[in-house]
Amino acid sequence: MGILIAILGIWFSSSLVKADSKAVTTSLIAKWSSTPLLLETSEFLSEEGQEKFWNFVEASENIERAEHDGSDYSSYQEMLKVASQSLSPLQQNLLKFSLSLRSYSAAVQAFQQIAADESPPEGCTLFFVVHGEKTCDFDSLGNLLQAASDRPKPFLFKGDHKYPASNPESPVVILYAEIGSEEFYRHHRRLVSKAEAGEITYVLRHYISNPSKEKVYLSGYGVELAIKSTEYKAKDDTQVKGTDVNATVIDENDPIDEVQGFLFGKLRQLYPDLSEELKELRKHLVESTNEMAPLKVWQLQDLSFQTAARILTAPPVDALMVMKDLSQNFPTKARAITKTVVSSELRAEIEENQKYFKGTLGLQPGDSALFINGLLIDLDTQDIFSLIDVLRNEARVMEGLHSLGIEGISLHNVLKLNIQPSDSDYAVDIRSPAISWINNLEVDSRYNSWPSSVQELLRPTFPGVIRQIRKNFHNFVLIVDPTHETTAELLNVAEMFFSNHIPLRIGLVFVVDDSEDVDGLQDPGVALLRTYNYVAQEMDNNYAFQTVMSIYNKVKTGDQLKVEHVVSVLEKQYPYVEVNSILGIDSAYDQNRKAARAYYEQTGVGPLPVVLFNGMPFQKDQLDPDDLETVTMHKILETTSIFQRAVYLGELSNDQDVVEYIMNQPNVVPRINSRILRSDREYLDLTGMNNHFVDDFARFTTLDSKDKTAAVANSMTYLTKKGMSSKEIYDDSFVRPVTFWIVGDFDKPSGRQLLYDAIKHQKSSNNIRISMINNPSEEPNSQNTIVAKAIWAALQTQTSNNAKNFITKMAKEETVKALEAGADILEFAVGGMDTNIFKEAFESPKVDFVLSHAIYCRDVLKLKKGQRAVISNGRMCDLVMKVDALLSAQPKGEARIEYHFFEERYSAVKLRPKEGETYFDVVAIVDPVTRDAQRLAPLLLVLNQLINMNLRVFMNCQSKLSDMPLKSFYRYVLEPEISFTAENNFAPGPIAKFLDMPQSPLFTLNLNTPESWMVESVRTPYDLDNIFLEEVDSVVAAEYELEYLLLEGHCYDITTGQPPRGLQFTLGTSTSPVIVDTIVMANLGYFQLKANPGAWTLRLRKGRSEDIYRIYSHDGTDSPPEANEVVVVLNNFKSKIIKVKVQKKFDMMNEDLLSDGTNENESGFWESLKWGFTGGQKNEDVKQDKDDVLNIFSVASGHLYERFLRIMMLSVLKHTKTPLKFWFLKNYLSPTFKEFIPYMAKKYNFQYELVQYKWPRWLHQQTEKQRIIWGYKILFLDVLFPLAVDKILFVDADQIVRTDLKELRDFNLDGAPYGYTPFCDSRREMDGYRFWKSGYWASHLAGRKYHISALYVVDLKKFRKIAAGDRLRGQYQGLSQDPNSLSNLDQDLPNNMIHQVPIKSLPQEWLWCETWCDDSSKKRAKTIDLCNNPMTKEPKLQAAMRIVPEWQDYDQEIKLLQSNFQKEKEMGTPAKMPGQHTHDPAAHVEL
Prior knowledge:
Elements: H1 2-14, E1 23-33, H2 37-48, H3 50-59, H4 61-65, H5 72-83, H6 89-101, H7 105-117, E2 127-130, E3 133-135, H8 141-146, E4 161-162, E5 172-177, H9 182-196, E6 201-206, E7 215-217, E8 221-227, E9 258-259, E10 262-263, H10 264-270, H11 275-289, H12 297-300, H13 303-313, H14 316-328, H15 330-337, H16 344-361, E11 369-372, E12 375-377, H17 384-403, H18 408-415, E13 427-428, E14 436-437, E15 475-480, H19 487-499, E16 505-510, H20 524-538, H21 541-554, H22 563-573, H23 579-583, H24 593-603, E17 610-613, E18 616-617, H25 625-648, H26 658-663, E19 668-669, H27 697-701, H28 705-714, E20 719-720, E21 738-744, H29 749-763, E22 768-774, H30 786-797, H31 800-810, H32 813-820, H33 835-843, H34 848-859, E23 869-872, H35 878-888, E24 908-911, E25 920-926, H36 931-946, E26 949-955, E27 968-973, E28 992-994, E29 1002-1008, E30 1013-1018, E31 1027-1028, E32 1035-1053, E33 1064-1068, E34 1076-1079, E35 1086-1091, E36 1094-1100, H37 1104-1108, E37 1109-1115, E38 1126-1130, E39 1136-1144, H38 1165-1174, E40 1190-1194, H39 1199-1214, E41 1220-1225, ...
Parallel strand pairs: 1-32, 5-6, 13-19, 15-16, 21-22, 25-26, 32-39, 40-41, 40-43, 41-42, 45-47
Antiparallel strand pairs: 1-7, 1-28, 2-3, 2-5, 4-6, 8-27, 8-29, 9-10, 11-12, 11-25, 14-16, 15-17, 17-18, 20-22, 21-23, 24-26, 29-31, 30-32, 32-35, 33-34, 33-36, 36-38, 37-39, 43-46, 44-48, 45-46
Helix pairs in contact: 2-3, 2-5, 6-17, 13-14, 14-36, 19-21, 20-21, 20-22, 21-22, 30-31, 30-33, 39-49, 41-47
């Protein structure tokens, strides 16, 4: 005690007490009301199976009645207890994690929205819907059911809960109710009895009549507090009043709370009376460590290795915690880390491992990767919600294998078996002379201009761009019968690929009648083949192919090829040649006739036509000509990435023959046997283990599916070939890997036929065993089950051989006829049978086995009465059968990676799994000073609490760093389980806490959310773009709201195979059809729509989109492909991506979406370029709109720029009489601005709209907020605004306008899509800073001007017409991969593209800025921009007041308006909030 007081005494005498510790907190809530955890649990269970869902619904009735104290904690525990009855410990942990993440809240909310769309009857807590008619009264249900069959059945979604015993023929009753309410159970029981009586199909949907006032706190996202550069001061000086935030976020309950070696948690326990002094000491220590003096370059060099060394010296249990702490708080830890010594063993081992990382996984030093059981988890695209799915799928398989007694290392070896059934994995050899190739990319002159090096594959291009390289990477073989009606269509597709220069080598195999006596004058197929061969010899294969196309052009659609079609083309092209000599009996042109048929038969590729891609046959459903094109393009892109990897790893070099390389892959086989390689199968769950049998029917009915299957398997007796019953032990040592269960009604001819065929098949195969399941067609009685009972009795009592011979007799029709006529069963006994025990078993009155089999067929196999089936290996040796069924039922995914050879003595953190339980094998590769480490460390810590894992974290450090590797603090919001307060109530939701932060830096706050989330900042007075903690009282609390979930898609026109640029989609409900709309881009046909959980209908927008196009097909949606309505259900937090194909209506083939229906006298894009080269000018009519509105677009982030923005708006308003509409990018606006703007709009009489667009996942991401905002200024102009907006003016927030902008809108752009002002040259002292005057820019611009991006005018019609947006994004994609290019993104990109997308230079007076223009030109200025000055670095605010005299007046005017707004707000009469805007309600649909 004395020592501590002495320390405190010395310290107090030497320090002045500073202000309190500062913190930043961030929370994210969903827009909807908090959903009950009981309902979320039911959704978790329904993913495990509908049976578990309904069992939980039944059992949940007891939760409320259970003995507990009524607290949140005890009812939560009670609910878990009920849910856990059917879950393994691992699944229980995943359930708790899902509840903490609230991942099923979206599913419950989706039902809530579907219920709202039904418009629930007033005053009801639950209601029924019968084929569109509603009631809350159970007694009136009868009336609704009577006439139900006259009304159409409702559409049921994939996620709907249908009671299992429902009769599919009966009317559908949907109950909208809340599980857990007393009223629910009363009605539920009544509906169940109706369903079990076969009267109704019962469907349950969640409906909460009285939603909670609480919101859902979300997690699974990251928060970054990045240190901003303060080179140019951009902070507002307006004082902000802090809100009353609960300041207890400093975690005083932390039991350790270590700062510089002092364990304050322990000290607070030991010395409670010194708590104030301890608080002061802690604060002093925190502040002394938080000093962030910059490091010297030599100190930075080894930081990555030093951080790894620091992590690896910690005990393994704490190593992840240390990694999390160091990476997430790196800026304040870096100085201390520079003192760490790195051992030579550690460095050597990391460098050795890096060779493997690069060679086998393609990872560079500094890259990271995460593997779970060998499956790659992509940290950039996979969010925590898809990770849970991976864990659940793996858990199912691992627990299944474990229950079969396969454990530990063997379990992980079995997992790696690639047992996936799939034809597509196999390819046949295409190096056959029977294939006639019509082109060869490597030698044909038409491909001369293409590059020929395989290294070209590694050059960055736009996603979805097909690389044109002179190598036969992609080989497309058509195996066709020339007389088949689909042949012409398939050849057309090949012709289209060929003529459009798609890099595809195309080969033909004509399969025709090869008997000697058939010639080309009788058989059109032979005629075509001989003609092809003749032309190929005279000219070449390509010319012969064109001749074949001419022949097919003669055949009318729907007709077959005839000999006369061939003859007419031959006579026309070769008038001097005797047709007979080519087609007749003595023809010399039969090459490949026999070879082609032999090749086709030998490869076994199935019925014609067949299309091979690199030897892999396409599925039958992909051969539809519309699909074939898309599928082939996808294949090209898919295989390109495989080749890229091969080139990258050095497996494929320039001097290798590419086709040889492809054909030497392990999946190439000489022959494909489709019976062995068929996919799309149903699998039974064979992992159940119990001691039940089918001859106890009462017990059997109580089992769930898995246990029923186990009981059926336990009761099976098998027929085997060796002639011994499988009851005899020595036969079982011979494992028979193929098991057939024959299902049928053996008292009916069809069932007996199936059984007879199976026994016959068994004779030809040594490794088959057969057993039978009886599926009676009618209710079983002693008369209609004679054969079934005879078979069962024989199996139970006789040796296998005798049983087999007897059952074979029973399967014959004459036997059954004799039995029906009254013959005794024993007349058919076979030699060697023990007839006494057979007769006893046969005559036993018990038919439990038949009843059990019948119920098993109905409930588990989902068969109709009497329906036949064959189940092989539980696809639908027991161990072999069960393992095969388990592994095959996995979702088909990526291959698992093997990683045996990494060294792990010095450079890996290792955590061993608990003994005797199943464990996940988790491998992470990470550089501890990267953004990935900031995310990965907390993720692994949470996983460690959820799952039993064998974890290895390998360090992948970079050496010779020249810059600070991490300039940000980071928190990942993720908790393994819901937490409770000391009073046993739910703790407030998960939040990100940045405690004890340094106060000197300027921070900006960013959220990293899953790809499909659109979040906005709500309710914070602070400037989150410029957080300066010295000026804050204690806590900056940032609150965000999940505003939308994104629905993304790709759209193609099936006629052209191209995206329909400018096509518009809308998304809505039946009651309000248009809630949001969007435009399709040309890049990948991409579109995005904003939605929330629920069921939505996607439609083409009314107007030109709907007039010209119709939706042809859709994929990834939730309605059947042929349905007219495209229904999309959003019911989880994961990304949803759909594909839509559209087709022009027949009478609209020549219409263009982007023209306005009038013929434009323009030959398109080249015309628009002409002025740039020839100087020819084209006058544009200035179109005066009926509603002549000036559209002005601007972006701002941070309070200072929002202050500038308001002043810019005021300066525009003061100088124009034209009605104004401002468009703001919503993504980065502060809550303060969004709250004030409707008030300002009302006072100054202008319209406004907030637009937003989520940066598409396929477009290279920027990480720095400023660069993202620059990207939004230029990259999405074609999709941000509705098509009705013809022209938009962009005005920077920090500009002051001194003229009427109508003049700029009407400026003649001479056919260019946009106009910018060039940089001034007149201020000579700045010459040294004009980077565009030398180097790259000088040569690229070739005498043209370099333009400034602070002000520009865009002719959106022209911009869209020449696909300028798609070109800009394409160029951006190529350039942005290099971090050093596009340093001023929004300005460099249009200047770089000046040759492809021309810029019209605006007169200099349109933009004056002091940095570049001299003082004398200021008086002519139409706008003044506050450009940064690289020489003086003068702060913006100071410059504004000095340069622009009117600026302060504007500033005062706005401040007055703001104070009036505050007063009105406090008095309770503020202006209307956004969305209720008085001016133009239609203008408020947010895009």
